[in-house]
C-alpha cells in the first residue's frame, strides 16, 4: 500500500518484545539499503560510514522473544478479534435498556477491514470519573493519547488552537481502553463490562 510501512514491537503491542523494538518494511531495494545502513550508525561496511545513522539494532534477547511469539501470533490474532467483537456485543447488550444514544461508543471497523485490537478503546462521558470508578472496582484501564497532536507543544507553531479539530479533541477527552489481551476469559470480560456499566450509569 505504500513505499514504507512500519510496525512497533513495544511490549504492549499484539506482537511485542520485552523492550523497545520495531521494523520497517519496503519492496524498494534502495530504501532497504538505506534502512540497513541507518540502523548501524550509517555503516555500509565495518568502519565505513556513508550516512549519518543511529544504533537501531534489535538486541538478541528481544529478537528471540519475537521469534518465539511469532509461532503463536496467528492464533493470538484470532483470539483478539473474537474478544474485540465480543466486547462490542456485550457493551451493546449491557446498555440496550438505557436508550439512545448509548453513553458508550464502541470501536468501528469497516466491513472490508479487520483489527487486531492492540487496545480495545471505547468512548464514555465523564471519562476521568469513569476511570476512577472502575479502579474502585479493581478494573484497570488506560487512557492513550489524551491530547491530540495539534495541541502538542511541538506543533504549537502551526497555530492550530483548541477547536481546530473538534472531533479529535472530543475523542481525546472521552477515550478509555479496557483490559485486552488474547487470554482474557469470557468471565473476565463479563466482569469488565459489568464494572463499565455500573461506573457509567452511576455518573449519568
Question: What do you see in this structure?
Answer:
With 204 residues, the chain is α+β, with helices and mostly antiparallel strands. It has a domain at 73-201: Aspartate Aminotransferase, domain 1 (Alpha-Beta Complex), CATH 3.90.1150.10. It contains five helices and six strands; from the N terminus they run ββαββαβααβα. The chain has helices at 29-39, 60-94, 127-136, 166-174, 186-201; strands spanning 5-8, 22-25, 43-45, 48-49, 120-123, 175-178. A two-stranded antiparallel sheet has the order 1-2. Helix 2 packs across helix 5 (186-201) and helix 3 packs across helix 5. The longest helix has 35 residues, at 60-94. The radius of gyration is 21 Å and the shape is globular. The model has no long low-confidence stretch (mean pLDDT 95).
User: Mean pLDDT, rounded to whole units?
Assistant: 95
Overall 3D form: globular
How does the major sheet shape up?
A: 2 strands, antiparallel
Please name the CATH architecture of the domain at 73-201: Alpha-Beta Complex
Query: For the record, what CATH class of the domain at 73-201 applies?
Result: Alpha Beta
List the total number of helices. Answer: 5
Order of helices and strands: EEHEEHEHHEH
Low-confidence stretches: none
Query: What distance lies between the first and last C-alpha atoms, to the nearest angstrom?
Result: 44 Å
Looking at the structure, the CATH topology of the domain at 73-201 is Aspartate Aminotransferase, domain 1
Strand order of the largest sheet: 1-2
How large a portion of the residues is in β-strands, by DSSP E?
Answer: 5-15%
How many strands in all? 6
The value of Rg in angstroms is 21 Å
Secondary-structure-derived class:
alpha+beta
- Helicity, as a percent range: 25-40%
Any idea what the CATH superfamily of the domain at 73-201 is called?
Answer: Aspartate Aminotransferase, domain 1
Amino acid at each position: 500500500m505504500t513505499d514504507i510501512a512500519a510496525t512497533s514491537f513495544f511490549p504492549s503491542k499484539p506482537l511485542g518484545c520485552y523492550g523497545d523494538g520495531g521494523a520497517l518494511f519496503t519492496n524498494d531495494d534502495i530504501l532497504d539499503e538505506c534502512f540497513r545502513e541507518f540502523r548501524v550508525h550509517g555503516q555500509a561496511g565495518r568502519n565505513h560510514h556513508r550516512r549519518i545513522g543511529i544504533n537501531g539494532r534489535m538486541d538478541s534477547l528481544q529478537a528471540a522473544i519475537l521469534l518465539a511469539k511469532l509461532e503463536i501470533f496467528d492464533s493470538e490474532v484470532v483470539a483478539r478479534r473474537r474478544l474485540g467483537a465480543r466486547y462490542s456485543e456485550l457493551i451493546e447488550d449491557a446498555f440496550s435498556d438505557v436508550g439512545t444514544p448509548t453513553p458508550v461508543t464502541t470501536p468501528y471497523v469497516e466491513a472490508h477491514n479487520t483489527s487486531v485490537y492492540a487496545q480495545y478503546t471505547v468512548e464514555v462521558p465523564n471519562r476521568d470519573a469513569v476511570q476512577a470508578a472502575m479502579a474502585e472496582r479493581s478494573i484497570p484501564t488506560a487512557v492513550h493519547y489524551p491530547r491530540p497532536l495539534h495541541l502538542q507543544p511541538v506543533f504549537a507553531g502551526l497555530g492550530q488552537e483548541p477547536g481546530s479539530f473538534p472531533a479529535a479533541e472530543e475523542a481525546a477527552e472521552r477515550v478509555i481502553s479496557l483490559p485486552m489481551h488474547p487470554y482474557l476469559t469470557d468471565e473476565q470480560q463479563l466482569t469488565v463490562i459489568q464494572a463499565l456499566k455500573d461506573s457509567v450509569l452511576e455518573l449519568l
